[in-house]
Amino acid sequence: MKLDVRMFRYLSKESFRVLAAVELGMRNHELVPLPLIESLSKLKRGGSRKLIKNPCLKHKLVTHSSKDYDGYKLTYLGYDFLALNAFVNRRTVVSVGRKIGVGKESDIYLVRGRMDIQEDKTKDKKKQREEYEQNELLNEENKEEDVVPLILKLHRLGRISFQKVKLKRDYLKNRNSSSWIYLSRLSALKEYSYMKLLYERGFPVPRPVDVNRHSIVMELVNGYPLNQVKNIQHPHIVFHKMKELMIEIFNIGLIHCDFNEFNVMIDDKEDITLIDFPQMVSIHHPNAEVLFDRDVKNLLDFFNRRFKFIPDDEDVKGFCYKDLIKNYSENNVDLSNEIRQTGFTEEMEKELMENIDLDEKYDENEIENENENENQIENENEIENENENENENENENENENENENENENENENEK
Ligand code: ADP
Ligand code: MG
């Protein structure tokens, strides 16, 4: 899946209204019927009907199904474009460059944009209206001075397969296949909230710039993920920086849960930056001990394997959950207010974590460990996976028509 920016540029603001109407309709419809799209988009007669075919359907921004029930739903690309449009309107993104990473649960793009959001986020109505308006088309050669290179991360929960994201039965029943939209949105908002908290407390993490739907914009980190680095000059010092970082995060009550060579970037000076936060948990999580000690073990194994570095006993003394929790003083931090400032609620946190399989995440890293030399580039496999996934979604549709009708009724009652 590619973010075709030329195509983005060519989309009219009316096309975005149609996409936004499909998005809105998907809140309580598995497939959004055309009459509903027409009424939600508030376009002149026939406008939506035309635009849903071209460009939306033609360019795979939506899919159409008429098997048992006629309607449309957003694709990831359609959802990407809605988020991108919001960033463009806020001018946090002015141009999109190449894709630099394909994670298991994200796509990462190099973009250019502004660090400071141009708009008052508290004005909800205004914001919504502006998202529909495409004020400025993307311009690759934007030369304005405050424009800097940034990273756009598009979250993709449920892309590879829904089995990997443990979807609870009742959850699936309520949210249907649009749950990927919902979960990816929660994942992005969580990542943004935690990144902001860590950044504001002076931790070495990218500066968060903007969040919309399933996407975040953040500072570009100089350097490479540690897994791509064959040699470092001072393994001992780098190990200590990583250890201290884990401990400092622990001391504000948090565990990263995926603290490894894929999520630690290192620069020329061998300074480190931590990335990738959707799976973070509190030190009071029921599995906190296992999760923290696993990150520790992974770090030790990696330094041994890659740099032939084994720390002294003294170096790792007290570097485990049991000892750290003993010395942890509860009264020094309460993060909940800071985290919730972004609108990421406790309920959202709970819902997301019920659907992130922390063990699964670790297994995937182990598989990646074995293929360390392979570049993370888009390949045919990925496209195959995506197709599989589409089929899975199709099947889900078929199974859930009953459910769909229920939603229909609900909707009518509301009216
Ligand atoms: P995932 O959740 O899919 O693992 P990550 O946030 O770990 O996603 O990002 C995947 C890869 O993208 C990283 O390993 C890194 O190479 C690159 N990357 C992510 N964020 C940044 C950033 N802020 N600056 C530079 N590169 C980044
Ligand atoms: Mg990662």
The helix tally amounts to 17
Number of strands: 12
Overall geometry: elongated
In which range does the helix fraction lie?
40-55%
Find the CATH superfamily of one domain.
Answer: Transferase(Phosphotransferase) domain 1
Distance, first to last CA = 38 Å
What's the mean pLDDT score? 81
CATH class of one domain: Mainly Alpha
The unique ligands bound to this protein are: adenosine-5'-diphosphate, magnesium ion
Instruction: Characterize the largest beta sheet: strand count, sense, and whether it forms a barrel.
Output: 5 strands, antiparallel
**Assembly context of the chains:** single chain
Which H/E pattern describes the elements?
HHHHEEHEEHEHHEEEHEEEEHHHHHHHH
CATH architecture of one domain: Orthogonal Bundle
β-sheet strand percentage: 5-15%
Stretches where pLDDT falls below 50 for ≥5 residues?
Answer: 131-137, 161-173, 366-415
Alpha-beta classification:
alpha+beta
The CATH topology annotation of one domain reads as Transferase(Phosphotransferase), domain 1
Radius of gyration: 22 Å
Strand order of the largest sheet: 3-4-5-7-6
Enzyme class: transferase
Catalytic activity: L-threonyl-[protein] + ATP = O-phospho-L-threonyl-[protein] + ADP + H(+); L-seryl-[protein] + ATP = O-phospho-L-seryl-[protein] + ADP + H(+)
GO molecular function, one term: metal ion binding
EC number: 2.7.11.1
